[in-house]
Specification:
By secondary structure, the chain is α+β, with helices and mostly antiparallel strands. It has a domain at 3-39. It contains one helix and three strands. Strands 2-1-3 form a three-stranded antiparallel sheet, with no helix packed on it. Strand 1 (3-8) and strand 2 (14-18) form a beta hairpin.
Length: 81
């Protein structure tokens, strides 16, 4: 459900509210009780990327990942004299 910003043209009160996209615009200001609200143009919701599947490496096959683990060798800590 999107968040909409409103501003009263009478008293300059600004607020935001959650409304469905099909809901009618609010008209009455909660502060001055006059029908002078104007819905503002907002930035909208940000795009959120959660979970796997957003990076090229997320689509690697299981065999690629297992071979990659085999190729990694533990580093040997040898001191040269």
């Amino acid at each position: 459900m999107p968040t909409y910003d409103y501003k009263c043209e009478n008293c300059d009160h600004t607020f935001e509210t959650l409304q469905t996209m099909s809901a009618e615009h609010l008209k009455t200001c909660p502060e001055c009780k006059k029908e002078s609200l104007k819905r503002l143009i907002g930035a909208g919701a940000g795009l959120l990327f959660k979970g796997s599947g957003f990076y090229q490496t997320d689509y690697r096959s299981k065999s690629y990942n297992s071979d990659k683990k085999k190729d990694k060798k533990p580093s040997e800590n040898k001191k040269q004299s």
